Amino acid sequence: MTRVLIIGGGGMVGQKLAAHIAQQGLRGDASPDVTLFDRAFPASGAPGRAVSGDLTDSAAIQSLVSQRFDVIFHLAAIVSGEAEVDFAKGWTINGTAFLEFAHMIEAEHRASEGAWVPRLVFTSSIAVYGPPFPDPIPDDFPPNPQTSYGAQKACGELVINDLGRRGIAESVAIRLPTIAVRPGAPNKAASSFFSGIIREPLQGQEAILPVSPEVRHWHASPRAAVAFCVHAATLDAAALEGSRVLLMPGVSCTVGEQIEALRRVAGEKPVALIRAEPDDLIKRIVAGWPHRFAPERALALGFQAEPDFDTIIRIYIEDEMGGAEALKA
């Protein structure tokens, strides 16, 4: 039986990933054993053994690592806006705690005399990039993060590459686009508004737009994010030689184009609920983000995203609202 650990399993992507694995299996195993680790979990959560704890709790993390899971998804992080506001918290969770986790993986690998080599999937971010940008940005464009969150993810990527280079783990880092449209309440990510200007209007609520409609960004749906994680867990390890960091595909569009997609999918009524209210901190953070990529390596390896933002909105309506009939209610 394939044994799977999802660190950050209480979060949106973690829950959707666990549900997908329960329904579809993983790596040829129709019924993997799944453990989810997080600070909290939804009341009616995805299938799996839920273990509550914090990334800074060394004893809790050591207890998990000592179980020698076959596949580990490391999804947990302090998000971008929160990491920028609280320097110490961001580096403690996204930096120090992740490095300690890597040390534990190495120690357990050594204790097994090299027999335990888990597949480790780490979710990184396009926040590792910084201007000036070519258009589009190729796979080999060097990281130059302009936020603490981006710097923390870039450091995590280096750790992932070193674990893989040394044969300690079949490790792979996937640089995710901004995931939209996210269900639930807004979070503290600076990118939260990209989902909010779609999600809230579809629910009949006002949404705040803190940036110019001309701002362009790179997106993929939660459904695509789960598919990225699953595919990363099943890749032939030989395909990761050279660099174990993969830039994920996505949809490049402006905020204005997002709003036009909302108009095409759902009509004028939700669009009228979007209100411009500039936010200087968010504008500064977003100004340093990339907006269009050429992820040729990931595409060649079989990773796929949506063809356009209209499809991303329709996926949200289907997965979170029960389908198009909900728009007529």
Provide an overview of this structure.
It is a single chain. With 329 residues, the protein is α/β, with parallel strands linked by helices. The protein is 41% helix and 17% strand. It has helices at residues 12-24, 58-65, 80-85, 87-111, 148-165, 192-202, 222-234, 255-266, 268-271, 280-287, 296-300, 309-320, and strands at 3-7, 33-38, 49-52, 71-74, 119-125, 137-138, 170-176, 178-179, 207-209, 216-220, 245-247, 251-254, 274-276, 293-294. The protein has a seven-stranded parallel sheet, with helices on both faces. A three-stranded mixed sheet has the order 8-10-12. Strands 6-14 form a two-stranded parallel ribbon. α2 (58-65) packs parallel to α4. The chain starts with a strand and ends in a 9-residue tail after the last helix.
